[in-house]
Amino acid sequence: MLPLNDALHQMLQQLPQPTATKLLSLKDAADRICAEDILSPINVPAFDNSAMDGYAVRLNDLEEGKPLKVAGKAFAGIPFQGEWETGSVVRIMTGAMIPSGTDAVIMQENATVHEDGRVSFTQIPKCGENLRRKGEDIQKGDVVLHKGAKLTSVALPLLASLGLEKVSVFKKIKVAVIATGDELVPVGQALGEGQIYDTNSFTVSLMLKKLGCEVIDFGILPDDPARFEESFIQAQQQADMIITSGGVSVGEADFTKTVLEKLGQINFWKIAMKPGKPFAFGKLGDTWFCGLPGNPVSALVTFYQLVQPAIAKLSGFSEWKAPQEFPATTTVSLKKRPGRLDFQRGFYHVNENGQIVVESVGFQGSHLFSAFVKSNCFIVLEKDRGNVEAGEKVTIQVFNEILG
Questions:
Q1: Where are its TM segments located (predicted)?
Q2: d(CA 298, CA 175)
Q3: Which one of 35, 249, 324, 353 has the minimum C-beta count within 10 Å?
Q4: What is the tens place of the pLDDT at every residue in 114-165?
Q5: C-alpha neighbours within 13 Å on the C-beta side of residue 173
Q6: Within 10 Å of residue 5's Cβ, how many Cβ atoms?
Q7: How many domains in the chain?
Q8: Domain boundary at 315, 343, 359, which?
């Protein structure tokens, strides 16, 4: 059986970086992937300005407690106009352009306004105090976002603050989703004897949408080689990737492998992981292919561990990071046979002693999907590890946003 990391490495080596781009307005670009480095066309701040409501001062004019004349006012968007006489200060508001010659701004809380309109100060500021300098945040020509970054609700306002109206993004990946098996019934239809609902297509589609993909639902294919080949040809013509669930295990519908090999180049792997041993990867013409196991938990885990990073690369999302892993102490014993990397569903939290602890959420069968609702992480047990006793250290992999 192929180790998980080896399978993922082989996949990512074959997958290309995207080249197709589209120019979008900022309001339409949420969660898209930036297709080029973005350089700032301006300095931020664009001018020296005040960080406080108070008084712009020149240090040579100051003596503690000495009243000074107010020469005028400066507001945000309305700079001080006129001559700034020696021995005077300028009343200034937050964000206002500072008058030429300003050494500091004194907070209004540290000022006393006298009946004659003059003002005195309880302390002398340091040079540069409460001043925001031109280009202090961003300098003109700085790279503010790199190619491959996601345009988040933080990134897009940053671009708007630079006066940018549009941004170049990579085109969305189109993914055809296909379920296989005579036993499957669409959600909402009455079940017949021996039938089950097709939840895999629904699960995969939800995760794909969170990854920014355009989903094409091809429904459920019966175990019929002719129908299978026809649907695959149609999907190949419409999608950048095809994802199937079911029909990749040994002994399942022999025509699956025959049809796929007829239409393209497919590698069938046995991955040394649990759940999710059977997995297929390859290419049909210009369309990439991933075949997931049929069991609901296995389908989700193989998608999460193998397809998710593949989609990130095809989408151009170069800043995508693998789910975070942390050491934790298990509060319960865990069953495990050596031989495969095991992803058990768990729930972690920080206990009263500040330790990260984790517990299993119940039975770990690949058909038992309900445990995911109670989980917030995978308990990752190494290939050669056996049973784990309560109190032992384990590694947890915290669910990222596609399982949130």
A1: none
A2: 20
A3: 353
A4: 999 999 998 899 999 999 999 999 999 999 999 999 999 999 999 999 999 9
A5: 33
A6: 11
A7: 4
A8: 315
Which ranges of 264-334 does DSSP label H, i.e. alpha helix? Answer: 296-302, 308-315
Label the pairing between strands 88-92 and 21-25: unpaired
- The residue behind tokens 């947890």 is 396
Write out the two tokens for 215. Answer: 């989903």
Distance CA 18, CA 21 (A): 8
Do residues 296 and 191 both lie within one domain?
yes
Element (H, E) at 227: helix 225-238
State whether 308 and 342 are in the same domain.
no
Task: Give the mean pLDDT of 86-109.
Answer: 96
User: d(Cα 74, Cα 76) in Å, to the nearest integer?
Assistant: 7
Is there a single domain that holds both residue 27 and residue 163?
A: yes
Distance of alpha carbon 139 from alpha carbon 152, whole angstroms:
22
| Same domain (yes/no): 120, 257 | no
Reported as a pLDDT band with limits 50, 70 and 90, residue 94 is very high
- CA 174, 271, 377, 148 dihedral sign is negative
Strand intervals (E) in 147-286:
166-170, 174-180, 184-185, 196-197, 214-221, 241-245, 265-270, 273-274, 278-284
Neighbours of 143 (CB within 10 A): 11
Cβ-count burial of 168 within 10 angstroms (0-12 exposed, 13-18 middle, 19+ buried)? Answer: middle
CA distance 121 to 119: 7
| Half-sphere exposure (Cβ direction) of 54: Cα atoms closer than 13 Å | 23
pTM of this structure: 0.86
Question: Are 287 and 378 part of one and the same domain?
Answer: no
Same domain, residue pair 193 and 279: yes
* Residue type (1 letter), 338: P
What are the tokens at 205? 């589609």
Of residues 335, 353, 356, 352, the one with CA closest to residue 344 = 335
| Percent over 90 (pLDDT), the chain | 78
The two tokens of residue 214 are 């355009």
Q: Token pair 């014993």 is at which residue? A: 333
Q: Determine the Cα–Cα distance for residues 308 and 317; give it in Å rounded to an integer.
A: 11
In a domain, 378, yes or no: yes
Domain residues for the domain of 378 are 325-398
CATH assignment of the domain containing 383: 2.40.340.10
Read off the tokens for 123.
């302390």
My answer on whether omega of the bond before 45 falls inside 30° of 0, hence cis, is: yes
Same domain, 33 and 166: yes
